[in-house]
Write a structure and sequence with these properties.
This protein is of the alpha/beta class and 271 residues long. Helices cover 42% and strands 14% of the residues. α1 links the parallel β2 and β3.
């Protein structure tokens, strides 16, 4: 599958940045089987993609993502009429693989959140690396409001690590919404901007990330992910040492040091 064949998502490429747009605005960008298939294909291909350095994820229309498309939940089949299987867990595992792929891909992911981000849509936000909210953003672990557990799609892993166990418990046990201002106050998002400025809010992050070396950026995301679960300082530092040795052997590291001494911007080549 090529990105041109996607129907429920759209990939707009701007240089080294992929703008990943959830593109079912008539359904508030709710998740259906086709969207999962396309997201799995896209994120699965990023590991070997050296042209894309950063991904910006947003929703078309007035919502980021309303979560699972409940109207289609009983007919979660692929284009061939087969029920998708993800590691033996059917559609559950099929969708869960998307969030794992988001964390595994070496490119940082910036989520721009407007309107509702519910259930699986909230999990997209949590699986991202940087989160920027519009004033209209409203997020919740909606699963528990429809007879399910709120521990779904990585929410029980990501949320307490981002905001602490107390707030995570509140949000997950009640399913209540957290608005943009409270999300900012609790560190769930980096900033809140007017809705009309949401897309532009990504630009400073992109400009700064793209001034880093390609390997340095990739290994920083990897190192952060591993450090979050490291069982000791020594374990985290072992990853840091490994990553620094890998980076220091590149031509980009030499260029970065030369540029620092010469008081100029570095010109990285990815070598």
């Amino acid at each position: 599958m090529t990105t041109a064949e996607y129907e429920t998502i759209r990939i707009d490429r701007e240089g080294a940045v992929d703008w990943l747009i959830l593109n079912r605005p008539e359904a508030l960008n709710a998740i259906n089987t086709q969207m999962v298939t396309e997201l799995r294909d896209y994120f699965g291909g990023l590991a070997e993609n050296t042209d894309t350095r950063v991904v910006v994820m947003r929703g078309e229309g007035r919502a980021f993502c309303a979560g699972l498309d409940i109207k289609q939940a009983g007919e979660m089949v692929d284009s061939n009429g087969h029920r998708p299987v993800g590691y033996g867990w059917g559609f559950q595992g099929y969708l869960a693989d998307v969030y794992i792929a988001m964390r595994r891909c070496p490119q940082p992911i910036i989520s721009l959140i407007q309107g509702p981000a519910c259930g699986g849509g909230f999990a997209f936000v949590l699986a991202s690396d940087i989160r920027v909210a519009a004033e209209s953003a409203r997020m919740n672990a909606a699963f528990i409001r429809i007879g399910l557990s709120a521990c779904d799609m990585g929410t029980s892993y990501f949320l307490p690590r981002l905001v602490g166990t107390s707030l995570a418990s509140e949000l997950m046990l009640t399913g209540r919404f957290i608005n943009a201002d409270r999300a900012l106050a609790t560190g769930l998002v980096s900033e809140v901007v007017p809705d009309a400025q949401l897309k532009d809010a990504a630009k400073p992050y992109l400009q700064e990330m793209l001034t880093t070396s390609p390997m340095g950026l990739r290994l920083t995301k990897e190192g952060l992910n591993m450090a979050v679960d490291a069982n000791s300082l020594e374990a985290a530092m072992a990853i840091e040492n490994r990553n620094q040795i890998l980076c220091s052997g590149t031509e980009d590291a030499k260029e970065g040091m030369r540029a620092f001494v010469e008081k100029r911007d570095p010109v990285y080549t990815g070598r």
